[in-house]
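In response to the reviewer comment on reproducibility (Comment 2.3), we provide here a single inverse folding case reported in full, input and output, so that an independent group could reproduce the run without further information from us. The structure tokens appear first.
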């Protein structure tokens, strides 16, 4: 009886994880929230809260959103999923989603992963 109960619990947990796996959009929203917070903190500490700082914030956030829309890849493992983006010849994992929640990068990881993206996007536009 205990084995049957354990099997049922494992199956129900697996089904719950499959049903609550976050979408690619949820990953993008979570990453954009961190980007917006990071950009706002950085621009306030360096430039204050003037009009130019706000315009710069909007440009950076829109650029990151465009990059995520075009280059973000989702990897679905049924019970969890990850997103990654290709930087040069390496693929960087940016977020992990499980049980309806997206775990994303912190601000230091953001600096390491987003700044090269912005630089490579600038080179592509030239």
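Designed residues, in position order:
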């Amino acid at each position: 009886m205990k084995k049957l109960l354990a099997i049922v619990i494992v199956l129900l947990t697996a089904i719950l994880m499959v049903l609550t796996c976050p979408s690619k959009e949820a990953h993008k929203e979570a990453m954009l929230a961190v980007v917006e917070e990071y950009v706002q903190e950085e621009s306030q500490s360096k430039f204050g809260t003037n009009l130019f700082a706000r315009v710069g914030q909007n440009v950076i956030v829109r650029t990151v959103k465009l990059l995520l829309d075009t280059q973000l890849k989702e990897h679905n493992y049924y019970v969890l999923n990850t997103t990654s983006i290709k930087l040069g010849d390496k693929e960087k994992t940016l977020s992990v989603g499980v049980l309806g929640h997206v775990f994303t990068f912190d601000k230091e990881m953001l600096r390491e992963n987003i700044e090269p993206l912005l630089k490579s996007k600038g080179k592509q536009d030239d």
